[in-house]
Amino acid sequence: MATRSPLATRSLLVAIALAALSGVAGAADRPFGSIDFTLGYKHMSSDWMLGTPKITANTDTSAETGPTQPGLGIETTWGRPGWPVSIAFDVMHSYDDGLQHFPLVNLGVDSVYAANVRRRASTLEIGLGVRRAWMMHDWAPYLGAGGNWMHATLIDQVIDPAIGPTGAVVGGQRGHDSAFGYWVGGGLERRVGPRCHIGLTFRVSRAKLDAPDTRVVGEVPHYRFVGTMHQVEAGGTHFGLVMGWAFPDSKK
Fold this sequence. Notes:
By secondary structure, this protein is mainly beta. The protein has a single domain (6-247), classed as Porin. Helix content is 7%, strand content 60%. It contains one helix and 14 strands. It has one helix at residues 6-23; strands at 32-43, 54-55, 61-62, 68-79, 86-102, 115-133, 139-160, 168-191, 196-206, 208-212, 216-219, 222-225, 229-233, 236-247. An eight-stranded antiparallel β-barrel has the order 1-4-5-6-7-8-9-14. Strands 2-3 form a two-stranded antiparallel sheet. The chain is elongated and about 75 Å long.
């Protein structure tokens, strides 16, 4: 499993502490805001294909569709009466893994043995920007936008299933990179109590960074990864459920 970086942990703690401190501010000009947890999916480009791809005549692989990674996030909003927009600080994390199966390729005297490829990929997004919500009875649509810091990790391992009882790693590569980009998003929430609310959220993020080439080629006696780096889009389109609470009571 991918581990959360120290920067991500500190960012989450800062966001939660900011929301908690804001909730106990003076009543004369009480700040308002919310802290929401999101659960959903991040749809990415075909560069992040982790499952079994199409195998061409040359035993090269080529992804045909964009993958979807499970994602978790936290969206915090903070503001004061009279502000046209509120401050938004968000953290989003996505992760997925897959196993590719490559069959025996019979080339006569020289053949490429069967192999499995284990692939793991994760992205971390930390965004700072502005957000605006509109109250309509018990419904609250909202929009936001801002800058993004993106970190992505990709781990590939080639496993020979013929070695040992569970196979052995015979090659692979690991790559990670960070870059700045942007995000835009919004959602629709419904109040289910004085402070609690649930709803739907969407988000589009963009950031270009370097990652290992995801193409695998057959080479006697095993498959191998092409050892090149190239620019990929680490952002994507997020869709998810949101659940959280507001401070103080949005009716007051």
